[in-house]
């Protein structure tokens, strides 16, 4: 039996054109699979954003055609509306209180779960449950009952209802957000499990105690995860609505102490029917969130540690 040698050129010859899918056909298949997302992004996100931007330069009351007024909504917002500035201050106060407390509690619980030998899955699910339930109006109403006159907090501490006190009402709203620490907790736990045990062993050999190991090993190695959680929770905090709406019964009281930005936006747009003004508020909020996020990314260069400088 004789064998015929196949030339080297034939071995590396390109496949016949009939067996190769043209690039244009491959791109077409990709666009077919992407089309639901692209259509949804255009119809449900980009188009409403464009309409909202247009309405922000108009006087629109939801019932009559919008009337072009240029920058009047923005000038009125910044120079003639004291409630607008109260909502800004209230929102900033809420963000400063809620975000650090939530992240601190999430990290503490994640550290406790990391050291558990048994029941970790159960406790992880139990601590995550408030993140699924806390955004609902029903839980917010329960929270209002707990902090109302004659509620659980009043019976335990005898301080009266927090929701009726201007100095404590916003704290009650912030505590509802802090209670929903499950999502950042799970992310922290995943990050903690990725820290090599050899680093802790080396620190222990050098005489570092638990606190020094936390500051010198855990915090630097966990800083990318901390930064990720910080950005996400800050963005969500600026958009808080349901807790403040439920705790204040939709009024932002007492004395506008819980009048967060999105509540005032809702009031202007759907209660007072000043949709053009509300659209202008929405775009200012978008710009502010973008600026705050950019600042966080900029400052992260000085405190976020990456194992490889090429990962920055």
Automatic annotation (TrEMBL):
Keywords: Cell membrane, Membrane, Transmembrane, Transmembrane helix, Transport. Belongs to the binding-protein-dependent transport system permease family. It is found in: Cell membrane. InterPro entries: ABC_transporter_permease (IPR051393), MetI-like (IPR000515), MetI-like_sf (IPR035906). The keyword Transmembrane helix applies. The keyword Transmembrane applies. The lineage of its organism: Bacteria, Bacillati, Actinomycetota, Actinomycetes, Kitasatosporales. It is a multi-pass membrane protein. It holds the Pfam family BPD_transp_1. Residues 1-17 have a biased composition (Low complexity). Its main location: membrane. Residues 88-296 form the ABC transmembrane type-1 domain. This is Sugar ABC transporter permease. PROSITE patterns: ABC_TM1 (PS50928). Residues 1-22 are annotated as: Disordered. It comes from the Bacteria. The chain crosses the membrane at residues 29-55, 92-113, 125-147, 167-192, 213-232, 275-297. It comes from Streptomyces lomondensis.
């Amino acid at each position: 039996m004789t064998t015929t040698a196949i030339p080297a050129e034939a071995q590396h010859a390109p496949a016949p054109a009939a067996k190769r899918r043209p690039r244009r056909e491959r791109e077409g298949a990709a666009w077919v699979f992407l089309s639901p997302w692209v259509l949804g992004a255009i119809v449900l996100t980009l188009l409403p954003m464009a309409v909202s931007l247009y309405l922000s330069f108009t006087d629109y009351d939801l019932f009559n055609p919008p009337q072009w007024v240029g920058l009047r909504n923005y000038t009125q917002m910044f120079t003639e509306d004291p409630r607008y500035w109260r909502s800004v201050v209230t929102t900033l106060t809420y963000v400063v209180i809620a975000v650090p407390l939530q992240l601190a509690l999430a990290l503490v619980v994640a550290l406790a779960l990391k050291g558990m030998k048994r029941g970790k899955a159960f406790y992880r699910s139990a601590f995550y449950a408030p993140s699924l339930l806390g955004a609902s109006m029903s839980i917010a109403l329960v929270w209002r009952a707990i902090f109302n006159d004659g509620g659980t907090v009043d019976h335990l501490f005898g301080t009266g209802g927090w929701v009726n006190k201007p100095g404590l009402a916003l704290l009650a709203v912030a505590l509802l957000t802090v209670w929903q620490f499950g999502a950042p907790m799970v992310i922290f736990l995943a990050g903690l499990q990725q820290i090599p045990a050899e680093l802790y062993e080396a620190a222990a050999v050098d005489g570092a105690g638990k606190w020094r190991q936390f500051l010198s090993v855990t915090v630097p190695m966990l800083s990318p995860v901390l930064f990720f959680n910080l950005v996400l929770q800050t963005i969500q905090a600026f958009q808080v609505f349901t807790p403040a709406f439920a705790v204040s019964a939709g009024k932002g009281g007492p004395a506008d102490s819980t009048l967060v930005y999105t509540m005032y936006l809702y009031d202007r747009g759907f209660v007072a029917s000043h949709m053009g003004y509300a659209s202008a508020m929405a775009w200012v909020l978008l710009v502010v969130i973008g600026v705050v996020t950019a600042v966080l990314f900029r400052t992260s260069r000085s405190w976020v540690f990456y194992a490889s400088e090429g990962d920055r």
